[in-house]
Amino acid sequence: MLDILRRIVQDINSARDPSEACNLIVSEVKAAIHTDVCSVYLSDYIRGELVLMATDGLRPSAVGKVRLKFGQGLTGLAALRAEPINVEDAPAHPAFRYVAATGESPFHGYIGVPMIRRRRVLGVLVAQQREQRKYTADEESFLVTLAAQLAGCINQAEIRQALDRIGNNVLSASLFLEGVASAPGLGLGEAVVVFPATALAQVPDKGIEDPAAEAAHFRQAVALELAELQRLSERMRLLLSPGDRALLDAYALLLGSDSLVNGTLERIQAGNWAPGALRATVLEYADIFTEMDDPYLRERSADILDLGQRLLNRLQVEQQVVDRQYPENTILMGEEVSVSQLLDVPPEKLKGVVSVRGTGTSHVALLARGLAVPAVFGVGNLPPGRLNGREVAVDGYTMRACIQPGPALRQEYLKLIAEEAKLSQGLQHLRDLPAETPDGHRLQVHANSGLFADIAAARNSGVEGVGLYRSELHFFLRDHFPGEEEQAIIYTRVLRIMEPYPVVLRTLDVGGDKPLPYFPISEQNPFLGWRGIRISLDQPDLFKAQLRAMLRAGSAYSNLSILFPMISSVGELDDALDLLRRAQSELLEDGVQVKPPRVGIMIEVPSAAYQIDTLLRRVDFVSIGTNDLTQYLLAVDRNNDRVAKLYDPLHPAVLGVVRYVVERSQAAGRPVSICGEMAGDPASALLLLAMGVDSLSMNLGSVLKIKWMVRSIPYAAAQALLAEVIVFEQAAAIRERANAFLDQHGLSGLLRVGK
Ligand code: PEP
Ligand code: MG
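That is the input. Now the predicted structure with phosphoenolpyruvate docked in place:
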């Protein structure tokens, strides 16, 4: 069964469109479980119906015509209940409904299994038998497993179909991609698809001007690879078994054969660049092998893919370097857009980001917000390879991207972009005014930063300090750890620009979803692994170099605070403080006039929140990192789009812990700040204001909006709201009430920002 299952899924994946996928499913399932009929119904949510999309066994004329309301008949019931229905004698079941058009009256055995993706029923897979038949538990699990796999493929097939239509320029409507998270804002521009150096399937198509040069480039890569394979085979004579060496020889044969090389050259002649031509050819050949019945030959498709990959790597070494031209309005798109890919685009050209994977608190999302670039993450199974050069609109407010918007839609986006610019223009007068409520309660609005570009912008944006300087961003921009001297120059510049406002420099926080390219960490569970202060304490040489650099910068200014990330126990803090003292005394010995900095810790691990009283005795301030605190309290990976719906800092448990930490800090007379994303979200910031936090640190794009909110709402009213919602049981209710409150106070303009 497992083999059959794999086969079917592979076939579906290679289908060109949903109807081809459905036709494949029905005939293969019918044969696999020896049943008389197999059909697929797909959900049409606009009309609340299931449509018969494919059948093997019912009248073909019924396809596309038979429509069942959710809940209607056994198939509608399976969709409504979102669970399998397996009955021996269908006509005897109270929900049975006879549909004449299908010619199904003589069928008795029935099983309907819903295809579900992200809690949504995408359709129902149905098998029927002329005689009475109860499908066995094994058959039922087979269909359930298959339905779960198909749910993913069907979505992919739908998108592929739409994209194919774009390719042929027959698309009448624009294609919308729904994300699960975003960075606010609107952008319109040209798609630039980025892909990791190793992903063959993700390479985009791209037009070229000089096919002859491109062909020569490809031929050279083939020759180099061939020579390499021969060398490898020779060298491996003593190390590899003859079977393994035969594989290398087979690769060489494949490369020498006409099909792969000529196929690619033909595509290059037709105008595609070498990597795109190679991808198309390799996938075509791999598909032929995948479809073979002989298991040995089927396996060879993996070899072809592997060989294609090797050739691609060769081609890319040069291509990556010469290919760094970005259009004026770049919309960066990719399977998983990375921090370094984003940083590679000149900021003035970057108008938006669309990433197939990722969520709102992944670091690339934080960076997008920091740079005020609209972005949409988690758009699902999109093959970005087809999108290079197309016009794309990114709407971070509705979490949607629109591929090739039609003329009317395009006008609408341009209008909204202009309106947005007007709103932010309208808030400019708040820049130099304090964040003070009408009844006189003040708090500080600070910036989250980490780059030169945004630190210069921060100085003129109306913030009264930098509440979180993510020092690791500089580490990402290099190909080695920056040394003490190099770091000291960076930190000095930051302190000088912000002087006299305070600057909180956070020590290196890598690991988790932020592995450094030159310091790879491979772990099963990176967020629970070696990250943040844990790495710093285990690499005291690197840590002390950073601390010394910070202290040296601080020796000339009086605005330095140092912040330790990911503290989870008192011992860690004591060790970090010890290393800080050692760095200080070393510098004093070197004759540097070190000024003792203010020292704080991030509260982002639940254990630290519950040991807050003890920790507070050792530090000058705390900063609550609600991004990680939410992830660890709710056990929801902040980067996993599958569980993004569960990630909510307004969850009553998160609010409760944040309030507890704020109260304990106030009782100890220590300032408390919030530097997670929730500080820049109006509804959340309103509740944090009510808790009495000393400062909110956020990306620059949110500063004026949050100042507007603070200056519009009396502190007493915010406190009353907090008292009301803190007993609510669910995040959604809290958000709804807080948003309604903002609306009542004339702040509906802020609400588009959303979660
Ligand atoms: C946080 O966890 O809330 C935080 C600000 O740190 P980072 O997002 O950089 O992990
Ligand atoms: Mg964090």
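Residues 137-167 form the longest helix (31 residues).
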